[in-house]
Amino acid sequence: MQQEKGSAMIKKAIVLLLAFAILGGGGVAAWRPWRAKGPVPVGEPTPRPGGEGWIDLLDAAHAGGWKNITDDKDIFELKDGMLHILGRTLYPLRYVGYTPEPFRNFDLHVEFKIARRANSGVFLRSRPNDPVSRGFEVQVLDDFGKPPGKNGCGAIYDVVTPMFNMSRPAGEWNSFDITVHDKEVTVVMNGWKVVQSDFAKMTTPLGKFSIAYNDLPLEGVLAFQDHGGEAWYRNILVRKR
Predict the structure, then answer these.
(1) Is 40 a member of any domain?
(2) Which end is more exposed in the chain, N or C (fewer Cβ atoms within 10 Å of the end residue's Cβ)?
């Protein structure tokens, strides 16, 4: 009996020590601010794709299809083979969309750079009147060197955290290679696969959204967000699947 009481007391002490470690003591490493240990992954923008089937949305035949789909404000320019979001005002958020046709299943290659502390986004399968809630965003953000997060660069905004933060410093070029097929989405950033997600499994609303990703439209426009900071996009190529 005495031995059983001793064993019970030891077990109780272990439980108390574990609770202390988790809630307030020395074993709180999981709760501390993230710090990289050793070298962090570094990627390089992937080159402009070649081969058949690619459509250059900034060439002479397609560049005229880009419009401000929010209002009639002058928020972007096409210059030197780039789509430049001027970033003059923060609110309301505005969107530059390719309007001649929607896209359903496709590969997208796009290269981008942003100003210091700037924010933008690549919106896919979006409804022009509500890109945020009726479409999804691959986040573009100046967050070089920060831990990956669901609102960080390369994330499916507020829903899917990238495996790595592969963004380069502000002012340097990055690349996205995004594949969208039915409800499966893959994001490769600067040569590293950072997101592989199946929206069919997202049957309840996530993050700030009121609609489940499983219920998002399967077709819509490609758009870039004007979030009040300068952003540049080039080599915007789409290949339908």
Answers:
(1) no
(2) N
